[in-house]
Amino acid sequence: MGFNPRDAIESVKDIATNAVERSADIVDSAGHILKGDVSGGVEGIVSSSMDIATHSVYKIKEIATGRGDDLDEIV
Fold first, then answer.
1. pLDDT over 90 for what percent of the chain?
2. If DSSP codes are grouped into helix, strand and coil, which group holds residue 73?
């Protein structure tokens, strides 16, 4: 399967949607830091950031390969 522009656009939209949703979690975690829960807030920020990055890598892999296989099987 090759590169499909229509699927690529949908994947980019999905990446952006996921990033916006997770950014709300990051803001919530920043609120925890301001309330004094520094450890929990930082953990939430790091976790949400990693979720954004992981999701983006999988979607970009799908765009580049045209496949939805597990990333570990390809790399």
1. 63
2. helix
Mean pLDDT, the chain, rounded, equals 86
Q: Tell me the CB-side half-sphere exposure of residue 74, using CA atoms within 13 A.
A: 13
Distance CA 75, CA 73 (A): 6
Q: Show the tokens assigned to 53.
A: 């990055």
The residue whose two tokens read 């790091």 is 46
pTM over 0.85: no
Q: How far is CA 35 from CA 11, 30, 42, in A?
A: 36, 9, 12
Where residue 74 falls among pLDDT bands split at 50, 70, 90? very low
